[in-house]
Design brief:
The chain is an alpha+beta fold. The chain has 9 helices and 4 strands. Strands 2-1-3-4 form a 4-stranded mixed β-sheet, covered by helices on one side. The termini are far apart.
């Protein structure tokens, strides 16, 4: 398929936009990245995703697919003949992977976001503690889902690996800003080794942003939040 027929509308710093890109890399599908500017919503984005008005959007010919994990499933199904499969083959394993992916988005990511915008030391500490608790649960999930193999998905990066792994860059930013280790060899040894393998994988290594670059983005976002609303 021609590269121009598959596009990802996103931003290089967005963990959600990373998800479809990694999925396309796994499937060896050629694609084009269309970058959105941080803090802005282009007319093109508003046209491509008029409902939620956010990235990422997969543009596949004349088809538009929104929401990062829905896009990952779409990619896995459309290019099903291209190995490896991203979603587990067994219905129960698929259900478990989706359950933990929802946990990542609905609880872990929310706690990480709250740690950066919380007002006051108490609220920030509560968010960090929620992240620590979440990582402990994800450590246990990794042990059970991986069954002794390198990734949540087994021998290859799978659905849950993509769902969680795309937050590793921002997790490092959170660690730096709070001067602490959240992925700790003593408390989450499985996740520590998993994170190293995930970031080194060919489908990921050229996509994962450097921590210093994300710190710069975080500072820009903080300034935008602090700026007075336009009258």
């Amino acid at each position: 398929m021609a590269k121009s027929e598959v596009k990802v509308l996103g931003a290089w710093s967005s963990p959600f936009a990373m998800r479809p890109i990694i999925a396309l890399n796994i499937k060896s599908v050629e694609y084009e990245c269309v970058q959105e500017e941080v803090g802005c919503k282009s007319e093109f984005l508003l046209k491509m995703n008029p409902v939620h008005k956010k990235i990422p959007v997969l543009i596949h010919g004349d088809k538009l697919v929104c929401e990062s994990l829905i896009i990952v499933e779409y990619i896995d199904e459309v290019w099903s003949s291209a190995a490896p499969s991203i979603l587990p083959s067994h219905p129960y394993d698929r259900a478990i992977a989706r359950f933990w992916a929802d946990f990542v988005d609905d609880e872990f990511y929310i706690a990480m976001r709250e740690s950066s915008i919380a007002v006051g030391a108490e609220a920030k500490q509560a968010a960090i503690e929620q992240m620590v608790d979440g990582l402990a649960l994800l450590e246990d999930a990794y042990v059970k889902c991986s069954k002794g193999k390198p990734f949540f998905g087994g021998n290859q990066i799978g659905y849950l690996d993509i769902a969680l792994g795309c937050f590793l860059g921002w997790l490092r930013v959170t660690e730096r800003f709070n001067e602490m280790k959240l992925l700790d060899e003593a408390k989450t040894p499985g996740l520590v080794k998993w994170a190293e393998r995930f970031c080194a994988d060919p489908a990921v290594k050229d996509v994962m942003p450097e921590t210093d670059e994300l710190v710069e983005v975080a500072n820009v976002i903080a300034k935008l939040r602090a700026a007075p609303a336009p009258k």
